[in-house]
Structures are given as C-alpha cells and as structure tokens.
C-alpha cells in the first residue's frame, strides 16, 4: 500500500507540475481564466483533475460520499440562485464590494445573499479575503462576462437537474423505454410534448438552448471543428451533401466555408427550416446551401437520389434504437452505391478505459439522453449493432476525436 500511495502521489505531483508549466506559458489571466482556453492548458487541467478525482475516490468512504452528496445538492441550488439573481454581474470585475451593496442592487434579503454567497465561496465562486469585502474569482467572473455561460448553467441547474431527478419515476411509469413521452423529462415538466417541442414552445428555454448551442459549438468536445477537419472532404471533389436534421444550417455553413467545392441541402422540420435564413449567410456560401423542410421519419425526397454524402450529426442519440432504424432505413433507401453516410456523434469508450472523471462526463451525456427523450449514447458495439440492422449498410471506418468523445462513423451502401 505504502509503495502504491507513493507512486500515486508522484502522479499528482507530475500532473500539477505539467499544469504549472502550462500556466507559466499561457499566463494566469485572460484566455487561461476564460471559458474557452488554450488546448494545452485544457489538457493539463483535465489530467490534474483526473488524478485528483482518483484520489478523492480512494480517500472517501461511505460517510464522506454522503457528505459529498450534501455538498453537491446544495452547490447546484446555490449556483442556480446566484445566477437567477445575476449576482456575478453585480460584483465589480476589478474592485471589491459588500454584501449590502449587492443585496440592494439585486433586491434580495442581505442575510440570504450572505449565506448563499458564503456557501458559493466554498465552491470557488467569489472570495472574501477581507471580512465583508467581496471580490470575484475567475469562476464567478466568467458568469459576469459570458452570458452564454450563465444561460447554459441556468439550463443545467434549473431544467436538466429537476429532469434527471425523475429518472426513477420514469422507470416506474413505463415498462420498456420505447416511447418518447414517458421519459423523465415528461414527468418532470408534466407534459406530453417531446423534449424539443417543449423547448420550442417555452420562450425562456428556447433562449437558453440558443445560448447552449453557441456555448457547445465553442467547446472542443462538441465543436464542429472535428467534423470539418477529420474527414477528407476535399477528396470528394464537387460533391453534394444532404444535412439530415441540420437545424438552421450552422454545420453546413461551417463545411461550406472550408470547402468551396461542396454544395448542401439542409433538411429539418418545417418550424426549424422557417427560422433558417439564407440571406444571413455570407455571399461566398449562400449560393451553395439550400433549405428544405423534411421529416426524417418520412421517405427522402427524390431530389436526394444524386447526393454524395448524407450527414447525420447529433441526431441518432436523441432516439430509441427502433426510431433510429427508421431514420437510417429512409436514408439508405435513397442512397446510391458509392454515396456515403456520415454519422457524427459521441461514442462511449469501453468501461474503465479512460479516467473515471472523463467516463463520468460521457455517461452523463448518455443519462441525459435517457432522461430527456429515451435516447442513448452508444459505444462501438452499439453503433455496429444499429448500423448492422439496416440491409445494405456497412461501417467502412470509424474516426475518433483524439483525447475526446466525438466520433465520425463512415457508412457505405453495398451494391444490391
Ligand atoms: C441535436 S439537434 C442537431 C442539429 C445539427 N445536426 C447539429 O449537429 O448541430 C437535432 C435536430 O434534429 C431535428 N429534428 C428532430 N426531429 C426531426 C424530424 N422528425 N425530422 C427532421 N429533423 C428533426 C431538430 O429540429 C434538431 O435540429
């Protein structure tokens, strides 16, 4: 045990050393403290947190885990409270303030504010280095300077969290997870609507999801950069891409910018296509992207028959396997041999093959899909099984995002 502990401690020292070296290079302010940070710093932070997390799990027994659960649920509610009252924006970025000043500006009782902020300080939000004098930390300042970050955390703490708490009720309410409207989300929100329909009908959520999408597009794990850079689009020449469930065209636009020889048809449900606006695309790409309303549970239009690529990005994780089979069958039916289907999704690693913190983040996405719409994230076996069910389709190649969880599954149609 002694030897093992010493080896593990050396691991922490090494990880901390690498993190410090990155901070020395990048500096400790500006981009280093922002939500978007240099890749080397992000990697060294992740490595250090992974090692510390391993130690946290070694050190904590059942009692300490129970204590941690207490901290976790308070931390989530405290964060939600601070963001709902926009407290980070009421603390100056470069000066101190007092509880009474912030309480007055936020129109909240000072005593409640003080108690909640002091809990927040145990979680890295704000600091009270001199009694009664409050200053920002980099974490709390990020909410003051980046509204998308504030909105996305409000979404997590105010919408996703209550939804996740209904997982057990959802399991009791349905025998098999085959229906969209028996998900934990339906129970939490007391609605028959699907997740996306509910979001579309709730202006506050629509706004928060817009922020969420912008935020995720900038985060390296979820950025379209992987799709743009890790597939050989140039080799396709003058190719036509059908972007199935392509939303308002942001992915096609990113690809069109990078590859002038490509043209695109973006398909989505009519309300989403109605929001898409060709005139807002820059002139260099606007002539190469068209928008067509199409429900992917219906057969593809004949106009798709000549397409070279069918892109399904972040679509199949939203649906049960049976529904995914319908979507894939509709695309496969119109694909000509030689055309390619690109599935850009997350791919779960095998259990225990990445650090527990990294695996927890991947599996959190999977549980989110379960709770929101009875969807799921899949591992390689899961993708093989799904694609293998569609006659004529064959996975040609799987490209994984280095050090992260996106994957690009290249699917061919065999000549019949
Ligand atoms: C998670 S978003 C992915 C959007 C885009 N592909 C991306 O990677 O950012 C899922 C998309 O599927 C669309 N969608 C949901 N049901 C659909 C259906 N039955 N037919 C077509 N599109 C649908 C939604 O409107 C939404 O734009």
Would you state the CATH class of the largest domain?
Alpha Beta
Query: What's the helix-strand series?
Result: HHHHHHEEHHHHHHHEHEHHEEHEHEHEE
Please count the beta strands (DSSP E, at least 2 residues each). Answer: 10
| Main pleated-sheet profile | 8 strands, mixed
Tally of distinct domains: 4
Low-pLDDT stretches are none
Mean pLDDT: 91
Percentage of helical residues? 40-55%
CATH A-level architecture of the largest domain = 3-Layer(aba) Sandwich
What would you report as the Rg, rounded to the nearest angstrom?
Answer: 24 Å
The CATH topology of the largest domain, please? Rossmann fold
Strand content: 5-15%
The rough form would be described as globular
Ligands: S-adenosylmethionine
Number of helices: 19
CATH homology group of the largest domain: Vaccinia Virus protein VP39
Return the structural class.
alpha/beta
The CA-CA distance between the termini, in Å, is 61 Å
How would you portray this structure in words?
The protein contains 19 helices and ten strands. The protein has 416 residues and is α/β, with parallel strands linked by helices. Helix 3 crosses helix 8, helix 5 crosses helix 6 and helix 8 packs across helix 12 (203-218). It has helices at residues 2-26, 39-59, 62-84, 87-90, 99-106, 110-121, 138-145, 147-164, 167-173, 184-189, 195-201, 203-218, 225-230, 250-258, 270-275, 283-286, 321-334, 356-373, 380-388; strands at 127-130, 133-135, 240-244, 263-268, 289-293, 309-313, 340-348, 378-379, 393-400, 406-413. 53% of the residues lie in helices and 13% in strands. It is globular, with a radius of gyration of 24 Å. Strand 7 (340-348), helix 18 (356-373) and strand 8 form a beta-alpha-beta unit. Strands 3, 4, 5, 6, 7, 8, 9 and 10 form an eight-stranded mixed sheet that branches. Strands 1-2 form a two-stranded antiparallel sheet. It has four domains: 1-59; 73-145, Arc Repressor Mutant, subunit A (Orthogonal Bundle); 147-215, no CATH class; 220-413, Rossmann fold. The structure holds S-adenosylmethionine. S-adenosylmethionine binds at residues 196, 245-247, 251, 268-269, 272, 295-297, 313-315. This is O-methyltransferase C-terminal domain-containing protein. Keywords: Methyltransferase, S-adenosyl-L-methionine, Transferase.
């Amino acid at each position: 045990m002694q030897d093992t502990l010493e080896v593990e401690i050396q691991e922490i020292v090494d990880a901390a050393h690498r993190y410090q070296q990155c901070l020395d290079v990048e500096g400790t302010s500006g981009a280093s403290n922002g939500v978007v940070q240099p890749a080397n710093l992000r990697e060294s932070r992740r490595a250090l947190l992974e090692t510390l997390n391993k130690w946290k799990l070694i050190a904590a027994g059942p009692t300490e885990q129970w204590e941690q659960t207490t901290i976790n649920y308070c931390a989530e509610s405290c964060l939600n409270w601070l963001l709902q009252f926009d407290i980070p924006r009421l603390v100056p970025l470069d000066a101190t303030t007092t509880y009474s000043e912030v309480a007055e500006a936020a129109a909240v009782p000072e005593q409640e504010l003080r108690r909640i902020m002091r809990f927040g300080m145990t979680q890295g939000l704000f600091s009270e280095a001199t009694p009664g004098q409050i200053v920002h930390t980099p974490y709390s300042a990020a909410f003051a300077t980046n509204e998308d970050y504030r909105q996305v955390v409000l979404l997590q703490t105010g919408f996703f969290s209550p939804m996740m708490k209904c997982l057990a009720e959802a399991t009791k309410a349905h025998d098999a997870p085959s229906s969209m409207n028996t998900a934990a989300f339906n129970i939490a929100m007391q609605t028959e609507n699907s997740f996306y329909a509910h979001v579309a009908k709730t202006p506050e959520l629509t706004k928060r999801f817009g922020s969420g999408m912008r935020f995720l597009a900038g985060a390296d794990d979820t950025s379209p950069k992987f799709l743009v850079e890790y597939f050989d689009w140039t080799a396709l020449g003058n190719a036509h891409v059908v972007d199935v469930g392509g939303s308002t065209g942001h992915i096609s636009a990113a690809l069109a910018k990078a590859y002038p020889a490509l043209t695109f048809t973006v398909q989505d449900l009519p309300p989403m296509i109605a929001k898409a606006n060709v005139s807002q695309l820059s002139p260099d790409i606007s002539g190469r992207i068209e928008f067509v309303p199409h429900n992917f549970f219906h057969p593809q239009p004949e106009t798709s028959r000549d397409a070279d690529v069918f892109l399904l990005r972040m679509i199949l994780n939203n649906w049960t396997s049976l529904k995914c089979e319908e979507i894939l069958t509709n695309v496969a039916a119109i694909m000509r041999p030689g055309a390619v289907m690109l599935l850009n999704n997350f791919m779960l690693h095998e259990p225990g093959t990445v650090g527990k913190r990294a695996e927890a983040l991947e599996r959190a996405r999977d549980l989110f899909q379960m709770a929101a719409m009875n969807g799921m994230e899949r591992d390689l076996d899961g993708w093989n099984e799904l694609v293998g069910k569609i006659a004529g389709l064959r996975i040609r190649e799987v490209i994984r995002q280095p050090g992260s969880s996106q994957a690009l599954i290249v699917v061919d149609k065999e000549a019949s």
